[in-house]
What does this fold into?
Amino acid sequence: MIAGRALWLWMRRRPDIPAGYRGFPPPPGALAMPIAFTVAALIELVVLHLLIPWEWLRWVLAILTLVSLVPLLGSVAAQRVYPHLLGEGVFLVRSGGRVAATIPIADIAAVLPRRRYSPTEAMVADGALILPTGDGTTVEIDLSRPVDARVHAPLPSMRGAGPVTTVRLNLEDPADLIAALAPRPGDPIQR
It folds into this structure.
C-alpha cells in the first residue's frame, strides 16, 4: 500500500508534506543502489526474454520481475516523497512512509553536523535511532528527554523499537535542519 502510494506521488513529483510542515529529505545519491538493482532487473528481463525458448515461461518471468520491482521502486520513492517533517512544535522522523519518532522541538538539546559512515542499516540501538542511507548519516540530534522510536521494516529481524536520546539521519542539507532548529532571540528554550 505504502509502496504504491509512494510511486504515485513520486511520478507526480508531489512529496507528502502537510500544510504547516517543512520537509527534510535524504540526499538524492542515496537512491543509487536501489536504482542499480532496478536497472539490473530490467537487463535480466531482456536477456531472459532472448534466451528462453518457451513463450509461456518468458511471460511468467516477465510478470514476476515487474511485480518484484514495485516494492523496490516503492522503497526508492518512499525515501523521496516521505521526508522528515518539522512543524507545529514537533520534528517527525519518518522512515519509509511511517513515523519512526515524534520529537517535541522543546526536547531537542543539540543538532550537530556529524558524519558517520556506519552503520548503514536502520536500527534502534544503545539509545539511538539510526536512519542512514548507504552513505551513513550526516546529522545527529541529541535529546534532553527520551522519546519512543520504532524502525519499520518488512522483515521482523530488521525491526526495532525503544526509547532513544539520540537520532542520526542522512539529510540532503544538514545545515538546513540545523538552521531551522537553531534558537532564536527571545527563545526561552536552551538547546
